[in-house]
Amino acid sequence: MENLRHYYDVVYKITMLTGAWPYLKPTARILRVGLVTLTIITIFIPQIAYQFTCKSNLQCTFESMTSYLLTIVALIKVYTIQLNNYKMKDLTQHLVVDWKTEKTPEQLKIMKLYANTSRQLCLIYVAYVLSGVIIFFSLPLVPFILDVMWPLNQSRPVISPYPGYYFVDTREYFFKIFWHSIISWEIIFTAVVAHDCLLMTYVEHICSMFTMVGLDYESLFSNCDKAMEITNNYKEICRKKVVLLVHAHKEALRLVELLENTFSIPFAIQMLLAIIGMSVTLLQITQQNDIIKSCRYTLYVVGQLIHLFWFSFEGQKLIDHSLQMSDKIYNSSWYEVSASSQKLIILVMMRSTRPSVLSAGKIFIFSLESFTTVRPLEITECTFYRDSLMRLRFSSVRRPCKPRCRTSRSSQPFSVSCLWIRRHFAALIERAGPTCLNAITIIHLR
C-alpha cells in the first residue's frame, strides 16, 4: 500500500479534487462535478453571447469558435469519466489487486518502473497545463503594462482574456473579468488533467502487465529445465505455468479492450473538435497583424498539438508492448515444452501479431505515425477557403459551383453558392497573403 500511495499520489489527489476518482462517495462526487459543470457554464454563456455579437463578421466568428470548442471538449472529458464510472472502478480495482498480489523481485521492479514513469508524466503534464493556462490568459495584461512603461497619447486597446461577452464594458470591468477567467479556466483544465492523467496511469499499468508476461515467458523454460532435474512431472508444471501466463495475457488484452470501448467515441468527438479548432486558428494566424493575438493563437495550436502528441505517445507505447510479446516467446525455448503447451503458446503468438491500440472512433489510431499525418491535414484545412475562392474568381457570380479541396489524401466536393462565398470570404482571402498559397503548393507536391 505504501507503493500505491507514493506512485499514484498525484493522480489520486487531482481526481479526488475534481470528482473523477471512481471510489469517491456519491455526495462528494455530485458536489465536485457540479462545481466543475457550473464553472464551465459560467464560461460557456459569455462565449455564446460573444458569438451572437459577431453577426456577419466571419473573423469574429472564427475567433469565438476556437474558444467554445475547447469548452465543449473539456465538458466531454469530464462526463466521459462520470458516465463510465463502473468501468473506471474495474480498471482501478485491477491495478490495486495487482499491487497486493505477491510478485517476484523482477516483476515488482517492473511495476515500480512503470508506476514511477506514470507519476513523472503526470507531474510534467499538470505543471505544463496549469502554467500554460496562466501564461495564455496573462497576455491581455501586456497593454496595461505597456501603458505604464511606455505611455501613448491614448490607452492601448483592451484585449479580452478569452472571446466572451459579459454584457458590461470590458475596459471598466477588465480585472474582474480577468480573475473570473483565470480561476474558471484553471478549474476546467484541472478536470481535463484529471481525465488525461487517469487514462495515462491505466495505459502505463497495462504496459507493465505486457512486460511482466513477456519476462515470465522468457524465464519460463529455464525454470522448467530446473524442474525437470528435480521431478519427473515437469511437463505438468510447465503446462500449468503456461496456462497462468495465457490468462495474464488475456487479462491485459481485456483491459485494453475496456479502455478502447470507454474512450473511443469520446476521443472521436474530441479529435473532430480539435481539428476544426486548429484549422480555424491557423487561418486566423494568417490574418492577424496584432502580435499579442498572434502569440495567443500560436500557443493555442501548439497546446493542441502537444495534447495530441501526449496521447499518441501513450498509444505508441501500448502498440509496442503488445507486439513485443510474440518476439519474446519466439526467442525463448518454447519448442522444448509439451505439445499441448505449444498449442497454447502458438495461440498467444498469433494474437500478439495484432497490436492493441487506442483509437478515436476506430478511425484515428493514436500512434506517432498517425500524429505526423495531422500537420499536413491541418495546413490543408487552413488553405481550403483560399484555394476554393481563387478558382471562383473566374466563375459566374450567380452560378452555383462545386469547388474541390484537393490533397494527396482526399478529394471531396464542397457545394456552396458562389455569391455567398464571395460576399463573406473575399476580403478575408485577399488579406491571406502568400503564406497559404505556399502551403497549397507544398501539399499538392506531396
Distance between the first and last residues' Cα: 54 Å
Strand order of the largest sheet: 1-2
Strand content: under 5%
Uncertain segments = 376-446
Tell me, what's the shape?
elongated
Total E-strand runs? 4
Which percent range fits the helix content? Answer: over 70%
- Put simply, the count of helices is 15
Strand/helix succession:
HHHHHHHHHHHEEHHEEHH
Derived from helix and strand composition plus strand pairing, the structural class reads mainly alpha
Gyration radius (Cα, Å) is: 27 Å
Sheet having the most strands: 2 strands, antiparallel
Residue-averaged pLDDT, rounded? 79
Protein name: Odorant receptor
Transmembrane segments: 31-53, 65-81, 121-146, 263-285
Organism: Cardiocondyla obscurior
Membrane topology: Multi-pass membrane protein
Textual characterization of the structure:
This is Odorant receptor. Belongs to the insect chemoreceptor superfamily. Heteromeric odorant receptor channel (TC 1.A.69) family. Strand 1 and strand 2 form a beta hairpin. Mean pLDDT is 79; it is low at 376-446. The chain has 15 helices and 4 strands. Helix 2 (9-18) packs across helix 8 (174-230). The chain has 446 residues and is mostly helical. The protein is elongated and about 95 Å long.
Summarize the structure.
The chain has 446 residues and is mostly helical. It has helices spanning 2-7, 9-18, 26-54, 58-83, 85-100, 105-138, 142-149, 174-230, 234-287, 291-330, 339-352, 368-372, 374-392, 418-430, 434-445; strands at 359-360, 364-365, 404-406, 411-413. Strands 1-2 form a two-stranded antiparallel ribbon. A two-stranded antiparallel sheet has the order 3-4.
